[in-house]
């Protein structure tokens, strides 16, 4: 039976382009990461998930790979990477790499060959189709705006790209392509990595015939996600990947799966099915999106968040395992989205950290979350870099004539560059991230919000996160206790319990900037209890009611 080291671990995600620049070119790099490993060791994280560092033209900042077996020039050399792995392992930390195999870059040698002719040996590594009635083969919209098809005149056919034009989808129907991927995975596992985060891995199986998407509003293009998310052969491919590669290593896998629900997650993460260990699902990060998608802003209701997390906590209680995250390189900063990044930034960041780290599952910390980094507001669209944002702005404002102010507001709330402003190390110029000009502007609040200040301040979010991480190692109830929710309909506080044999955790979270109160149920009154962690100076015991100050978090251990 494989050891489940990943069930007790806390995982830290590094977006290398924005983490630490060592050579003054304004771009984060691998030698820069090496200089910060002691900071991460001190934080107490066990595993690093490194966003892509492979050769790439950076159309989508590394999620468009042109050579899966070499390191991107901007980020360093293979020797740098080998040293990084050694330095991580020497510190008892594990490394999982990003596996981006739903698509490659259009500059990958496979695609360069594939587009040369219809009978090229690499033709079927990708998804080519003739046009239909002088138009694209179907009406699917790209996640990055426009059509999901790009015409290539050399062979008078279109290729599929669910993401950017420079990210052609790989054809997983082709066993030769699948074998190429398995060989590449083995190449990295043989170098000693400890697992993979798998980019949109539930997109790799498409429905035969690639049918048109329903398009009731008669838009130019419509989402085809029902025909490529959780497709007909996805379980076969994942099980084959385990048989062909992963089973030979004690590697962990987390599949990024937009559109996966609890029932599917049980299939994906059921150990007996040998697919993946856990998945990133998107239900909680879609709650503040309207029918028009992520840019259609909708206020978040706490009761919706509670329903979503409760469904997933209980849904995977017996079978499978949850990943736990509130932000990453694609999502806005959690303290801005779910907390208060102004008056109660520190309190709400600690409350949200408590919320996530006391749940059942493996918690993920996105770089900067541990020091309460916030969203950013650049005055001009010209300061933004993310292809998803720029393509959307171009389509909505320049093509469709929508109000730029309204579109900018949606970018401030949901744009991916919010998470990609350089890590704020100290209050020196550019936050100590670079001695050059950063590829993306540093958030101007780096003077007050930076790691150097946080490490020195015993009451910082950073030291609070260190304690949260430490608690997971000290109390098995945090890893294995079963979850239950109290006062589910309350719109201001989130109260849940974890139970393991005779022990209980009572987790109280005030999600508002006002005083709230929790009426303690009789069965929890009069019990011996101690406070494991809280973000205010809290009183020791509790009576029949527990007052909660703005964004207050308290965790009681009851035995
Ligand atoms: O993201 C998958 C994905 O669907 C995201 O595009 C997300 O839904 C969207 O950005 C929300 O705004 C993965 C990577 O994490 C992302 O960085 C890549 O751009 C994408 O796949 C293509 O590789
Ligand atoms: Ca650099």
Textual characterization of the structure:
This is oligo-1,6-glucosidase. It is found in: Cytoplasm. One of its GO terms (molecular function) is alpha-amylase activity. This protein is an alpha/beta fold and 559 residues long. α10 packs parallel to α14 and α11 (387-399) packs antiparallel against α12 (404-414). 26% of the residues lie in helices and 18% in strands. The radius of gyration is 24 Å and the shape is globular. Strands 11-10-9-5-2-1-15-14 form an 8-stranded parallel β-sheet, covered by helices on one side. The protein has a 5-stranded antiparallel β-sheet with strand order 16-17-18-22-20. The chain has a 3-stranded antiparallel β-sheet with strand order 6-8-7, with no helix packed on it. The protein has 15 helices and 22 strands. The structure holds 1-O-alpha-D-glucopyranosyl-D-fructose and calcium ion (CA). Calcium ion is lined by residues 21-23, 25, 27, 29.
Write the layout of secondary structure elements.
Layout lengths: L10 E4 L15 H5 L2 H7 L3 E4 L3 E2 L11 E5 L6 H13 L3 E6 L9 H6 L13 E2 L19 E4 L4 E4 L14 H16 L4 E4 L35 H11 L7 E5 L5 H8 L8 E3 L8 E2 L2 E5 L4 H14 L7 E2 L9 H4 L7 H13 L4 E5 L20 H13 L4 H11 L36 H6 L4 H14 L1 H5 L1 E5 L6 E8 L2 E8 L5 E4 L9 E6 L10 E4 L4 E6 L1
Parallel strand pairs: 1-2, 1-15, 2-5, 5-9, 9-10, 10-11, 14-15
Antiparallel strand pairs: 3-4, 6-8, 7-8, 12-13, 16-17, 17-18, 18-22, 19-21, 20-22
Bound molecules: 1-O-alpha-D-glucopyranosyl-D-fructose and calcium ion (CA).
1-O-alpha-D-glucopyranosyl-D-fructose binds next to loops.
């Amino acid at each position: 039976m494989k050891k489940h080291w990943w069930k007790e671990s806390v995982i830290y995600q590094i977006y290398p382009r924005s983490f630490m620049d060592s050579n003054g070119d304004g771009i984060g790099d691998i030698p820069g990461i090496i200089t910060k490993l002691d900071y991460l060791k001190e934080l107490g994280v066990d595993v690093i998930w490194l966003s892509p560092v492979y050769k790439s033209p950076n159309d989508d900042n590394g999620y468009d790979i042109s050579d899966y077996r070499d390191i991107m020039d901007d980020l360093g050399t293979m020797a740098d990477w080998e040293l990084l792995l050694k330095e991580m392992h020497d510190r008892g930390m594990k490394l999982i790499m990003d596996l981006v195999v739903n698509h490659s870059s259009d500059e990958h040698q496979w695609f360069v060959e594939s587009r040369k002719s219809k009978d090229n040996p690499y033709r079927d590594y990708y998804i080519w189709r003739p046009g239909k009635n002088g138009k694209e083969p179907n009406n699917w919209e790209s996640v990055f705006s426009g059509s999901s098809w790009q015409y290539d005149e050399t062979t008078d056919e279109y290729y599929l790209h669910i993401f950017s034009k420079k990210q052609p989808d790989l054809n997983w129907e082709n066993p030769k392509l699948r074998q190429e991927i398995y060989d590449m995975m083995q190449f990295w596992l043989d170098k000693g990595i400890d697992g993979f985060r798998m980019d949109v891995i539930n997109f790799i199986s498409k429905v035969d015939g690639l049918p048109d998407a329903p398009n009731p509003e008669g838009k130019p293009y419509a989402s085809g996600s029902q025909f490529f998310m959780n497709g007909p052969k996805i379980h076969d491919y994942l099980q084959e990947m385990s048989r062909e590669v992963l089973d030979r290593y004690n590697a962990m896998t987390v599949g990024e799966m937009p559109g996966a629900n609890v029932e599917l997650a049980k299939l994906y993460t059921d150990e007996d099915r040998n697919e993946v260990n856990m998945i990133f699902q998107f239900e909680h990060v879609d709650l503040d999106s309207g029918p028009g998608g992520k840019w259609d802003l909708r206020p978040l209701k706490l009761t919706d968040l509670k329903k979503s997390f409760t469904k997933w906590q209980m849904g995977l209680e017996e079978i499978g395992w949850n990943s736990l995250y509130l932000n990453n390189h694609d999502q806005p900063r959690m303290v801005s989205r779910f907390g208060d990044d102004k008056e109660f930034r520190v309190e709400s960041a600690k409350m949200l950290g408590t919320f996530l780290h006391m749940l059942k599952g493996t918690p993920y910390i996105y770089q900067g979350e541990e020091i309460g980094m916030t969203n950013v507001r650049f005055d001009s669209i010209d300061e933004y870099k993310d292809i998803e944002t720029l393509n959307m702005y171009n389509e909505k404002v320049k093509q469709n004539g929508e109000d730029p102010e309204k579109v900018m507001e949606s970018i401030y709330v949901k744009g991916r560059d919010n998470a990609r402003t350089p890590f704020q190390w100290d209050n020196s110029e550019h936050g100590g991230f670079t001695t050059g000009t950063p590829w993306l502007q540093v958030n101007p609040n780096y003077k007050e919000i930076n790691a150097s200040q946080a490490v020195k301040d015993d009451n910082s979010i950073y030291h609070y996160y260190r304690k949260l991480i430490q608690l997971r190692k000290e109390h098995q109830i945090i890893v294995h206790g079963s979850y239950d929710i109290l006062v589910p309909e309350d719109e201001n506080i989130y109260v849940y319990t974890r139970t393991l044999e005779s022990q209980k955790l009572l987790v109280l979270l005030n999600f508002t900037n006002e005083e709230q109160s929790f009426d303690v149920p009789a069965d929890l009154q009069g019990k011996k209890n101690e406070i494991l962690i809280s973000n205010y100076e809290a009183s020791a015991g509790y009576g029949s009611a527990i007052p909660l100050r703005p964004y207050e978090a308290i965790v009681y251990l009851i035995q």
